[in-house]
Specification:
The protein is α+β, with helices and mostly antiparallel strands. 59% of the residues lie in helices and 24% in strands. The protein has a domain at 108-205: General secretion pathway protein M, EpsM (Gyrase A, domain 2, 2-Layer Sandwich), CATH 3.30.1360.100. The chain is rod-shaped, with a radius of gyration of 53 Å.
């Protein structure tokens, strides 16, 4: 009877299996390492892109903050300029109103042409002779105060009538009227108060 010894074959086969398992293990390990390396490289690339984006965003943020500050500065300068312009406009309006008021008051001063040779105040050339002068003129808001000198009571009354008829003034009141001697002439010192009607209202009435 023939006997075959299979132990060397089995040992060789076992060694072969062990080598295959070791090869598979190393191959799998190498594959995992390669995958991890590629993943790490991809992840690092994404991180670099994100860091670049963050840096760019920070740079743009600083730029926009500077622009925002510049815009705020321009807005503040514009607001200051607008306020100054408004103040200038108000002053110009008040200046024109004051000039208009004084001119209007001056036109209402009573005048007459003297023709009497016996009149010590006559004008030989027949020119208009002032019969009323302002010594003090006050205007605060719509309140007006007038101090002056007139030839007589009628001149003061005529002046007050002119103020009322003009429709530019209301509440025309005579506060004081007294005799005053100037250069040997018996004249009348007076004080009148009144209220100015708004320029827009007076224009609309006209």
């Amino acid at each position: 009877m023939i006997q075959i010894n299979l132990l060397p074959y089995r040992a060789a086969r076992k060694k072969e299996n062990i080598r295959k398992q070791i090869s598979i293990f190393f191959f799998s390990f190498l594959l995992v390492v390669i995958i991890l390396l590629f993943y790490n490289m991809s992840l690092q690339k994404r991180i670099d892109v994100l860091n670049t984006t963050i840096t760019n965003n920070k740079t743009m943020l600083v730029k926009f903050e500077k622009q925002a500050k510049e815009v705020d500065r321009i807005k503040n300068a514009f607001n200051k300029l607008e306020k100054k312009t408004e103040i200038i406009k108000n002053l110009e309006t008040k200046r024109k109103a004051a000039a208009y008021l004084l001119d209007n008051m001056t036109k209402m001063v009573a005048e007459r042409t003297s023709i009497s040779e016996s009149d010590s105040l006559s004008d030989k050339d027949g020119k208009p002779v002032k019969r009323l002068w302002f010594t003090n003129f006050r205007a605060k808001g719509n309140n007006i105060g007038i101090n002056g000198i007139a030839m007589d009571n009628k001149t003061v009354a005529d002046f007050m009538t002119r103020l009322e008829v003009s429709k530019l003034y209301k509440n025309v009141n005579l506060k004081t009227l007294k005799q005053q001697k100037i250069s040997n002439l018996n004249l009348k010192s007076f004080e009148i108060t009144c209220n100015k009607i708004s320029l827009k209202k007076s224009k609309s009435k006209k």
